[in-house]
DNA sequence: TTATTAGTCTATCTTTTTTATAGGTTTTAT
DNA sequence: ATAAAACCTATAAAAAAGATAGACTAATAA
């Protein structure tokens, strides 16, 4: 399961994407709208900013905004940033690989093979679906 | 990522599957073979037994054994038992569903829709692949 | 029938991760 | 100047993960 942090991030990003034309959006507005602790959300948005996904403006009239159009922000990127590996096992992770401590040879490990396929099937979706694809439907 | 518990369970089950013809297998043998803490493994095997996946025999000549042939034990079952939900979000979990606290209506939530697809693609593999499919390749 | 073997059960403990909060600092618009 | 709002760092509380301990029970063999 994705952590609350990542879940909150997605909801916040959706709100920002749905209001791209309104200039910087307040943390407090997002927090209220999406029912998220404001202080926790603050940390999350900051992390997204430091990763170059969000921009911000301080002072009156400030807030957060997307640095790129929603269709250019892949879901996989957000997950990896806040949650780490998408794969179910360290030994099949593309970005956070770790050697398996429990098997002799990954090259012939059937678990490794199957979990690699699960990873691929998840990535096929998560690398291609973007913020744009998770905006509210039918609206 | 799967917990160590689930990872250990898979490796242990593979060992049991690869030795089905040798009668009950000792916890200690599995622990040594797969490099797992024996006491931790003890708890895991017990849980698998209580779930009806393994059987056991006490005393000399005792040990653990599979209750069904490897090809009848789906990977999804093991994951759900020891790790819980396979889905990335509570609101798309089939077995551990929880209402989303951060969106107004799941029926029109795009995140819900995409994560549902990720779940389906993972389940398509994990429900159909069994212990038999994760035995050591080329042997 | 006793000693040994091996799983059973329950509790606890340690460490890590997750989730959340607190409070001061800096920047910007008016 | 003042107020608004993000920035930053630290810490704390809670939960989960990972691991260990030890007494108990059942089966087997001598």
TrEMBL record, chains A, B:
<dbReference type="GO" id="GO:0003677">
    <property type="term" value="F:DNA binding"/>
</dbReference>
<dbReference type="Pfam" id="PF02082">
    <property type="entry name" value="Rrf2"/>
</dbReference>
<protein>
    <submittedName>
        <fullName>Transcriptional regulator, BadM/Rrf2 family</fullName>
    </submittedName>
</protein>
<dbReference type="InterPro" id="IPR036388">
    <property type="entry name" value="WH-like_DNA-bd_sf"/>
</dbReference>
<dbReference type="InterPro" id="IPR036390">
    <property type="entry name" value="WH_DNA-bd_sf"/>
</dbReference>
<dbReference type="InterPro" id="IPR000944">
    <property type="entry name" value="Tscrpt_reg_Rrf2"/>
</dbReference>
<keyword id="KW-0238">DNA-binding</keyword>
<dbReference type="GO" id="GO:0005829">
    <property type="term" value="C:cytosol"/>
</dbReference>
<dbReference type="InterPro" id="IPR030489">
    <property type="entry name" value="TR_Rrf2-type_CS"/>
</dbReference>
<dbReference type="GO" id="GO:0003700">
    <property type="term" value="F:DNA-binding transcription factor activity"/>
</dbReference>
């Amino acid at each position: 399961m994705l952590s609350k942090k990542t879940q909150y991030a997605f909801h916040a990003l959706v709100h920002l994407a749905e209001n791209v034309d309104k200039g910087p959006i307040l943390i407090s507005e997002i927090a209220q709208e999406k029912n998220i602790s404001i202080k926790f959300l603050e940390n999350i948005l900051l992390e997204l900013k430091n990763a170059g996904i969000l921009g911000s403006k301080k002072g009156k009239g400030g807030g957060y905004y997307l640095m790129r159009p929603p269709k250019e922000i892949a879901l996989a990127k957000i997950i990896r940033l806040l949650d780490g590996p998408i794969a179910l096992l360290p030994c099949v992770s593309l970005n956070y690989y770790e050697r398996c401590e429990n098997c002799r040879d990954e090259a012939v490990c059937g678990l490794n093979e199957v979990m690699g396929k699960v990873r691929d099937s998840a990535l096929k979706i998560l690398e291609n679906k973007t913020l744009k694809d998770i905006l509210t439907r039918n609206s």
